[in-house]
Every structure is written in C-alpha cells, then in structure tokens.
Write a structure and sequence with these properties.
Blueprint (H helix, E strand, L loop, with lengths): L13 H10 L5 E6 L4 H12 L3 E7 L1 H10 L8 E4 L3 H13 L5 E4 L4 H8 L13 E7 L7 E4 L9 H17 L6 E5 L10 H14 L7 E6 L1 H5 L1 H6 L12 E3 L3 H14 L3 E7 L5 E2 L7 H20 L7
Parallel strand pairs: 1-2, 1-4, 2-3, 4-11, 6-9, 7-8, 7-9
Antiparallel strand pairs: 5-6, 5-10
Amino acid sequence: MTTSSAAAPVQNHAKYDRLIADAKRVPPAITVVVHPCDETSLRGVSEAADAGIIDPVMVGPKSEIIEAAHRHAIDISLFDIVDAADSEDAAALGVKLIREGKGELLMKGSLHTDELMRVVTATATGLRTDRRISHVFIMDVPTYGEPLFITDAAVNIFPDLDAKRDIIQNAVDLHTRVGLGTPRVAILSAVETVTAKIPSTIDAAALCKMAERGQITGAILDGPLAFDNAIDPEAARIKGIKSPVAGRAQILVVPDLEAGNMLAKNLSFLAQADAAGLVLGARVPIVLTSRADSVRTRMASCAVAVLYAAARRRTPVLQAA
C-alpha cells in the first residue's frame, strides 16, 4: 500500500477507505461477535459483512439480538447466532469458540470492555499467548498523511520496560502485516533528552538499544521524542534532531495509559480524527470498539483485523501461553 507524506493534509476517512478496500481483496474472516445487542454494534457487523470483510457469528441472548435488529431495520437473517444467557455468558462462549478454532477474530459488541477482557485474559481458559496483550489505536488524523498508530492507551496502565517491548512489537507486527511497510516508531516522553528525572526517557533509550540488539524487530525506533518533534518535521529541525523517525513517526508509543488515552481523545475531539482500535497479543486479534464509535470506525477496525488475520494465515507469529 502506498502512503503520502506525513505532513500533507488529506481528506478524513481516506486512509480508512484504503484499508477497507484492501480488506475486501482477502477472504472474509470468521468473526465471533460478543453480545451485539444495540444498533451501533449490529449495524457495524452488518455493514462489514455486506462489504465482504467478515463472516460473523453472533453470540448473545438470541431474542434480544433479533429484537434489536428488527427495531432498527437491520437484516441479520443470514448470520449464525449462538444463544447466551447474558453478556457474561456471551463473553465466555465467545472465547470458547475462539479456543476451539471456530473463529479468526473476536469482536466486542455492546457489553463493557472489562467484561470481555476479563475472560480473554483468564490464565487457564482465556486467549493469552507468550506476548503481553496490548491495544493499538489506528487513527485517521485529517492533517496527517498516514495512519497514525497510538499504543497503549487502553489495556496496560503503567507498563514496565518488558511490557513496553511487547507493546511495540505488537504494533510493529500489525503495521507491517496490514501492508503499511516498515514503521517509524517514536517513543514519546515530555522531552527529547535522556534524564533520570523522567523515567520514561530512560525506558525510551533502553528500548532503542533493545531494537539495536534484535530484541525488537521490523521497525526503526527513536526516542525519547516529545510529541511535537515526533510528528512535525519543522519542530524536529528547530530542536536539531536528526533521525529517520523525528517528524515522520507512524507509531507513537506513549509512556502510560493516561498519556495515551488523553492523546487519542485530543486528536479525536480537537483534530476531528477517527480512532479505530484493535487488541493484539492474544490468540486472535480483538476488535475492541467503544460504544461511542461510529459504524465507519467499527468497519475500519474490522478491516485492519481482517488484514492482520489474513497475514497470520500465511505466517503465524504468536504461540498460546
């Protein structure tokens, strides 16, 4: 896939359009959708299925799903429905289907995130692998010429160095496997110099050295970088930072969940960015959408997950824990 310059403004949704178009060129992925009992989740599933991106298996209270679909005039007559008593039961059944090899993707419906992730991360019965589970926002920022990945803003609250290594590797694997090429990874902090007074700068330096020694592969890393000199070439020039990443980052690695969550929401509400989302590091990609997400954003999340699943069919990367 070709991308434009990181500094060039582009039309909103254009990057998602490219990802969705690419997803239509690969076989649809069997997608276990957990508790799709409201309009947004049902419509997102229906549109992704109509586009030929996913082949959904809905898990939840059958009567509630059918009633919601009827109320909002959404045709789900061609979709399989696995009956479940409630959202908790649906999460358990959905994860069980994945463990049995009956789905390539897991998708959150209208239940709470912690309900689903509690089952996903269960030690004996969940979907853990030898990799730390983490979340990636795939953001379509109108003023930025490429999809911008932000990680981790939803799962790991205060990740240590080892967790950050897995967080980066998860995002790098996603970036390359959906066809976006070798990513430029900026490890963010408040400043661009290493200082003991700001621990995230030390982590950033260590992570760059880990990449040099092959502990992180498939990407070009630099850090610590402040946000401005990570994404703006002129800011990097003024600071005298010379690197292939500065001013042109494609993946932003935040120091903790608070910083990542605020960054993603700032871009969404002040820059009118869209934020598709995916959880990685589990046995299968997990489409972890917000109840406030638009149908378009949900479809983009599905498209990215399907492209990743298609690449995994060719070369699996994760082993069950």
